[in-house]
Amino acid sequence: GTPPEGVEPVIRIKAPLDGNIIFDDGIKGEICISASEVDDFVIARAGGVPTYNFVVAIDDALMGLTDVIRGDDHLYNTPKQIVVYEALGFDMPKFYHVAMINNEQGKKLSKRDGATDVMEYKTLGYLPEALLNFLVRLGWSHGDQEIFSVEEMIELFDPKDINKSSSNYNLDKLLWLNAHYIKNSSNNKLAQMLKDFGVDIENHDKLELLLDATKERGKTLVELANQINLILNAPAEYNPKASKKAFKGTAREYLEEFANMLKNWDSTLHTPPEYHAVIDKFVADKEIGFGKIGQPLRVSLLGAMTGSGLDEIMAILGVDETINRIQKAIEFIDNRD
């Protein structure tokens, strides 16, 4: 019939009037909800738009889903969805309601704690396999194993083993896993991924050496990109604190003499061990500690006290660029003094 004037009708589904709606949750066990708690809920709004509990049940059924694993904030949606399943004669899936993830203090997770769009983790430099490994371990375990390949997850995962209690989000754990996957990724794969972070080294003649020298130091692809740029881009300025500490006393003299030793070395230098031999000889000849040349050399090459091994850095830069950066550091010292 025609609805009364000013009334926008909706479509409701008839729910049971008495008894209980019972289902076996794979994590929480038997759940019993009184039918009186489930009203004749709306399945289509006035404009004809279907509601969540109606369409999700139909969507899952038509896709042939046998297991529904979701957060326990959906636990009380399940009785309504069961009403839809039974009304339409669909096979009932197995339900698993996982305890929600808390922050490190055991409280509800918020955006400030890391609850963000999953694609944001890509922007932050996390690898897909690291994030997947992290997520699967938040509510599930297999002995004491921490690292799982995708193949192992598929083989070992059983929803019956999902933890009943809430898990805590731990950023340090995620960073540890991400560092592991970065270290164990092929250099060619890393070179491809680094393009998204403004670093294109795919055709760099020192690709292998460059990534071998830096990927141990990057917990994320953002950090790895920064480490690579630190080497490839000559310092535009020197960290004030680092330069004050490194460019003092005999630093200028030693830098000049070290540059001359590199220039006049009796064989062509290519590998980190060959550059290390130069440093060893310089230290031995001068009868000084490594830091006397190591600190001013590092700040000359990178502009800071951080970074990869000096022998690796010089092997990547080559003799000419190494000497060029040393000479610029000497000019800086002269102008400062």
Describe the structure.
α7 crosses α8 (about 205-215), α10 packs antiparallel against α13 and α11 (about 250-265) packs across α13. The protein is mainly alpha-helical and about 325 residues long. The strands form 3 sheets. Strands 1-4 form a two-stranded antiparallel ribbon. The longest helix is centred in the last third of the chain and has 27 residues, at about 310-335. It is built from 14 helices and 6 strands. The mean pLDDT is about 95. It has helices at about 50-60, 80-90, 120-125, 130-140, 150-155, 170-185, 185-195, 205-215, 220-230, 240-245, 250-265, 270-285, 290-300, 310-335, and strands at about 10, 20-25, 30-35, 40-45, 65-70, 95-100.
Keywords for this entry:
8% strand; Rossmann fold; 14 helices; two-stranded antiparallel sheet; mainly alpha; 4 domains; Glutamyl-tRNA Synthetase, domain 2; elongated; 337 residues
Residue fraction in strands: 5-15%
Q: Structural class, judged by helices and strands?
A: mainly alpha
Instruction: Tally the structural domains.
Output: 4
* Largest sheet report: 2 strands, antiparallel
Overall form: elongated
Radius of gyration from the alpha-carbon trace, in angstroms: 31 Å
- The span between the termini is 95 Å
The residue ranges in which pLDDT falls below 50 over 5 or more consecutive positions are none
Question: What is the C-level CATH assignment of the largest domain?
Answer: Mainly Alpha
Major β-sheet strand ordering: 1-4
Oligomer: single chain
Instruction: Provide mean pLDDT, rounded.
Output: 94
